[in-house]
Design a protein that fits this description.
The protein has 231 residues and is of the alpha+beta class. 40% of the residues lie in helices and 18% in strands. The N terminus is likely disordered.
Length: 231
């Protein structure tokens, strides 16, 4: 017969497990009672809850990050001024009426000035036309590396995916300045005709003064440029 001291622990007092569980339950009830029904206990419990609330509040940087992202979106929108113009930097000019610009969002665009046409200098298969180099040089000196504003009309791009714009430098419209110098003629591609009346008045003044392309009889008209008139 095996003595009690050498019994297998697994076969020990069958009531040991439940007794330990009962003691744990009693201890838990006592602690809860102290926390709920005594002043110091309630204060301790309140502190614990406050700490939990603080930990929750510490997760707020995620909300702040979202707020910062929203601010970034607003900055992007602010690139468009109150009058609808978009800021850009001229990287280089292509010819008298076209240039490469970097917009504030970093995109690179080929911009074609609206409602005018300058004589050709780089068109494939077309000889350099009279006053083409002068128009290109004027645009280069005026715009090269400068900060400008772009204003759009009804259609923002043409069939060649060029951005179509009225271009402002220091508050003055460059499109008008080219017409004033007699270095461009008015050309309309509907529906972009916002300033057509003003442009035609400027062109008429340049014609009367025989400036630039208007200094050669029969060279420029509403159909284009006719280099043979200069021969």
């Amino acid at each position: 017969m095996t003595s009690p001291e050498h019994r297998n622990p697994q076969n020990g007092n069958p009531g040991g497990g439940p007794k330990r569980s009962l003691l744990s339950i009693i201890a838990t009830v006592v602690v809860l009672g102290l926390l709920l029904f005594t002043g110091p206990g309630r204060e301790m419990l309140g502190n614990l809850l406050d700490q939990g609330g603080t930990a929750s509040t510490d997760n707020s940087p995620q909300t702040d990050t979202q707020g910062s992202a929203a601010s970034g979106d607003q900055t992007s929108e602010d690139a468009v001024s109150a009058d609808g113009r978009v800021s850009a930097t001229v990287e280089r000019t292509v010819d008298g009426d076209t240039f490469i610009a970097i917009l504030e969002d970093g995109s690179r665009e080929r911009v074609r000035m609206l409602l005018l046409d300058t004589p050709e200098t780089k068109k494939e298969g077309t000889p350099v036309q009279p006053f083409g180099p002068e128009a290109s040089e004027y645009a280069k000196k005026l715009l090269g590396g400068k900060q400008v504003e772009l204003e759009f009309d009804e259609e923002q791009r043409d069939q060649y995916d060029r951005m179509l714009a009225y271009v402002y430098l220091d508050g003055h419209m460059v499109n008008e300045q080219l017409l004033e110098q007699g270095l461009a003629r008015v050309v309309v591609y509907q529906p972009n005709d916002k300033y057509i009346d003003e442009f035609r008045k400027i062109q008429d003044q340049a014609k009367q003064k025989k400036l630039g392309v208007w200094s050669i009889e029969g060279y420029a008209d509403n159909r284009g440029f006719h280099p043979e008139a200069a021969e």
